[in-house]
Amino acid sequence: MRRLSLLVLACALTLSACAVPHQRGDLTLEKTAARKSEVSAVFSEYRKVRNTAIELLDAKPLSIVESGPVLAIDSGSFEVSQRLAKTQKQDTGAFEVTDVQTPRFGKYPLWFFAVVHDDSARVNRVQIFERETAVEPWLLVASPETLADTQIPDIRREGGNALTVKPDDAVGMSMSASAAAKAYAKTLADPASADASKVADDSFIKQMRTTAENNAKLEGVTFSQSWGNDPVKYVLRTTDGGALAFVTLLRLDTYEVKDGLTISWPEGTPQQAFLSSGISSSGKLRYYHQVLLYIPPGTGKPRAIGQFGGVVSADSQ
């Protein structure tokens, strides 16, 4: 694995670095998504934008460097900081990009894969940067985190470029990435689901079940949780014949409270920031979770090896 030493951004809280505008020429047929020399400029420029957002304590500048669920999660983090009157630390530390994989595409959008090692946080951020057109900037669209000692499967290369997999392609695996994402979401929604036997009972599933079980124990509160998944777009073949899929999960926590009761969260928590007055009738908390799903070759069960997420909105009555 080629290692590139770069100064890059580590976003505050649980958030990750992302990309910035970088102009390139028009796409030609079967052109590599991005040259490795471009990645350095992407990370360097991003840090300037990120630190501006931190200085202002305003997520608006991030809209030119992030997109989709990553931007929603980041914006949620800034909103928490604003509501709790907390500052975020600017990003000035040295980080290391340990892997960059650039697929080839015949048309836009283009995207590439990067792994950023953060030694201080003891995590790796596994990221996808996408560019919609020749005049659009590179935007961070996925950034799940793994523990530093988690083995990230090597990406298969063909002709010097990373090999992508169509989301509905199940060749050599127990299921396609799209099917795995659906089975994973159904398993999270219902432990008794028939799909629960199709995916591994990994640490993320256990963590989410524990959270749901604790919420369900609240006296005088009826708690329910639902899960769904966005369509899968980013899948890479691994050298062992399996695949790495970037899956975005949508989680909705719903609370129905008996008359005369109000539930609240501890001071300083994201939930308390979004619902400072608590819930006295009914309320909802919405989350995004980006999961790095590894689908082993053969009959192996898909499992999450990394995740990144947070509260993105809430409402109550």
Automatic annotation (TrEMBL):
PROSITE patterns referenced in this protein's UniProt entry, alphabetically: PROKAR_LIPOPROTEIN
Residue stretches making up the DUF8094 domain: 36-315
Keyword Nucleotide-binding: no
Keyword match Nuclease: no
Keywords for this protein: Signal
Domain of life the protein comes from: Bacteria
Signal peptide: 1-19
Protein name: DUF8094 domain-containing protein
Organism: Aeromicrobium ginsengisoli
